[in-house]
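Sequence in, structure out.
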Amino acid sequence: MIRYAVVICSAALLSACGGAVPERQRPLGTPTPIDRPAAATPAPRPTLSAKGLESVMGKDMGTLVRMFGQPRLDVIEVQGRKLQFSGRACILDAYLYPDGKNGAEIVTHVDARRSDGAEVDRAQCVNALMAR
């Protein structure tokens, strides 16, 4: 008799541990009508012109060092490298990635800004850094 009581109590305790299964929840928000007009496409991002950047685009690290001096920052990334050059007029970030031909890292993109973070023309920044 005691044995049956222990089995029944154990079964009751174990069933309490399982918890309740939640009912299926309603989806959040309201359903979207089928005849709803398509959302307007976002405005295209302005493309940055490479005009005036011929002296840096496609160049390797050695060429950049000869042009601008030692970089202020040299950040080695997983697949590329970022070199930062600075002068009184601006800060230039040059991004170098393997070119795919012989694996040499070359400049594929540049950003330019003032020391306060405001954007400046990239070609003018390159010219200012070369003139110093």
